[in-house]
Amino acid sequence: MSGGLTISGIRVIGPQKPDAEIDFVPGANLVYGVSNTGKTFAFQAIDFCLGGRDRPKTTIPEASGYTSAQLGLISDTGEQYIVERDFSSGNARVYTAPFDHGGTLSNGKDVAQTAASTNESISSVVLGWCGLGGRVTRRNKDGKTGPLSFREMSRFVCINESYMLSEDSLGRFGKGFDYSPWLSCFSMLLTGTDASGVSEVASRAIRTARAEASRLELQRLLKRCNDELAELGESTEEVQGRLKKLEAATERAIDEQSQLQTRAREQDDLIRQSRADVEDAARRSRQASELLNRFELLQQSYKTDLVRLEAIQEAGTFMSIMPEEICPTCGTELVQDGDSRDVDDSISISVQSARAEHARIVALDHELSRAIEQVRGDGLQARKDYATAKLRFDGAKDRKALELAPRLEALFNDLRDLRAAEKKAAEAQALSNQITELEARIRELDGANRQPAPKASSSGIPSYEVSLLCDVIGETLETWGYPGFPRITWDGDFDDFRFDNQLRSDFGKGYRAFLLSAFVTSLMRYCKQRQIAHPRFVVLDSPLVTLHQDVSGPATSSEDGEFIQTDMKDAFFRDIARLSEDDGQIIIFDNDAPPDDLGPVHSHVFVGPNRGGRCGFFPAAT
Asked: Of 80, 83, 252, 572, which is the most exposed, with the fewest CB atoms less than 10 Å away?
C-alpha cells in the first residue's frame, strides 16, 4: 500500500490544565472501559483535528478549561507531524515534531479549516501525507468535480457512533441523492483511479481532450480485465451456466445446513434437559440413601429402648412376687424401714410407665418401618429414573456427535468449496460484465455506438472491483464468527451492500454497526492487497456497544440491538489483535472489554473514578 499514516496519539491542552492524552501504536489499539470516561471525547478530538466540522463537547465538566487538541501523525516514510486545532475558533496549525516532543511547539504553519480557502487546508495537508494529495472526486451526476476532501475520506476511516447506528447507505446521507462525492471517493479506493477523467459540460475542445483521456484509461482497464479473464480460462456462457448451477447447489446446501442446525439445537435442548434429569435423579437417590441411613439408626435405637423397657417390666414383676425376708442375691435378711406398700406402689408405677413407653415406641417403630419402605421405594425409583435419563442423555450426545456433527462438518466443507468455486465464477462474471461495460463506453466515446452503455449499478461503482471487495468483507465476517456464509453483493440502486440479500439498513442497530465495521476494515485490507493508496488507519467509535450476547441460538432483532452468538465479540477482538504494523492501524473505542486471553495488545482501560486505575481520558481531579 503506497502512502498512509499512523496516528501516534491524541492530546487536549489548556492553560493551567494537565494534558489529557492517549498514545497509539501501529497495528491494533483498544480504548475501553465504563461509560462517561471521555472515550467519545477523545474520538471527537481525533476527528476534529482531521478537519471535522463538529467540535468535541467541551461543555462536559471534565473538559472545562481545555482549549485545543493536538493529533500526532507519522507518515510511511517516518516523518512525524502534529496537527493542532483550537476548539473555539477552529483555527489549525501543523508542526513537524514527534507527538511526545516534551516541550513547547514552535515553527508551525497555519492551515485553513476548509478546502474553500486559498491557503492550504487541513484536508489537503493530511491527504498529502497519506499519498492522496491532488486527487479529484465527482460531485454530482452532471460530472462536476472538485478536490478530494478528508471529510469524504473520513466516511471510510473515521466512523463515529451516529454513523455506526444510522440506516444511511454507504453512498448517501439520508434520501434523495442522485450522486455523492462519497461514492466517487469509494470508487477511487476500489480502483486507485480518481474522477479526473470525468467530463462536465464544457467546450468541445475540452470535452474532446477529456474524452481522449477517458478512452485511454478505459482501454487500459479493458486490457487488464481481458488479461484477468483469460487467466480464468472460461467463456462468458460457460461462466454463466456454472454460476447458476453453483448458486443452486449452494442454496440446497444452505437449506440442509439450516435443517441440520435446527436438529442440532433440538439435540442440545434434549441434552440439557436429560442432564438436568440425571442430576435430579442422582440428587433424589442420594437423599433417599441418607434418609435410609438415619432411619435405620433410629430404628436400632428403638430396638435398644424396647429391650431396656422389657427388662424394667420383668424386674418389676419379679420383685413384686419376691419374699421380703431374704435377699435373693446375697441371702441377707431384709429389714423394713417403712411401709412395704409404698415400695410395692413404686414398683407398680415403674412397671406401668415402662409398659406405656414400650407401647409408644412400638407404635413409632411401626411408623418408622413404613417410612423406611417408602424411602427405599423412592430410592429405587430415583435409580430407575437416573438410568432412564442417563440413557436418554447418552443417546442424544451420540446422535449429535456421531450423526449430526459429522454431517454438519461435511456440509461446512462443502459450502466452503462451493463458495470458493462460486467466488471464482463470480469474478469471471464480473470481469465479463465490466468488459462489456468498458467496450460500450469506448464505442460511445468513439462515436461508433450512441446507445448508452449497460451499467453495473446506477452509481457507476465498478462491478469487478466491488466484487473483489465483497469477497474480502465475507472473509472478515467469517473470521469474526458471523453466522453462516453470508453472500455479499453491491446494490447500485441503494448504493450499499447486501448481506444475504438484506441491506445493512434492514438489520437492527447492533448488526448495522458490526457490518459497517467489517466493511471499513476490509476496505483497508483490500487497498493493501491491491496496492491502492489509503490513509492506512481506521478509527471506530462503539462498534460493539449495542450488541447483546445470548447463547440460545441465531441472531434475532430487537429495538435496542441484537442477540448474537457469544463468541462473535471475542472473534472480532482476536482478529483485530492479529493486525500487524504492515497491515495498517485500527483504533477501537468501546465500552466492552476484550477476552481475558487476548494476549498483548496496546490498550488503555478507563475504570471510572475511585476504582484503582486510570479514571478516564481526562486526568482525575486532585
From this structure: 252
Q: For the chain, give the mean pLDDT.
A: 80
Half-sphere exposure of 493 (CA within 13 A, CB side): 2
Which one-letter DSSP state was computed for residue 55?
P
Dihedral sign for Cα atoms in the order 429, 430, 431, 433 = positive
Tell me the C-alpha distance between 185 and 135, whole Å. 9
Match 486505575 to its residue by C-alpha cell: 613
Q: Distance (Å, rounded) from C-alpha 109 to C-alpha 92? A: 8
* Rounded distance between C-alpha atoms, residue 129 and residue 62, angstroms: 33
Among 137, 234, 224, 198, residue whose Cα is nearest residue 429: 234
Residue 235 DSSP SS3:
coil
Residues of 400-413 as b/e, b for ≥16 C-beta within 10 angstroms?
A: beeebeeebeebee
From start to end of 67-224, where are the E strands?
68-75, 80-86, 92-96, 109-111, 136-138, 145-147, 158-159
Highest mean predicted confidence (pLDDT) among 44-58, 212-226, 260-274: 44-58
Q: How far apart are CA 38 and CA 572, in angstroms?
A: 23
Position 448 scores a pLDDT of 39
Q: Report the C-alpha gap between 299 and 291 in whole angstroms.
A: 12
Outline where 106-180 has alpha helix (H).
Answer: 122-130, 150-154, 161-165
C-alpha cell at 94: 501543523
Distance between CA atoms of 532 and 247, rounded to whole angstroms? 31
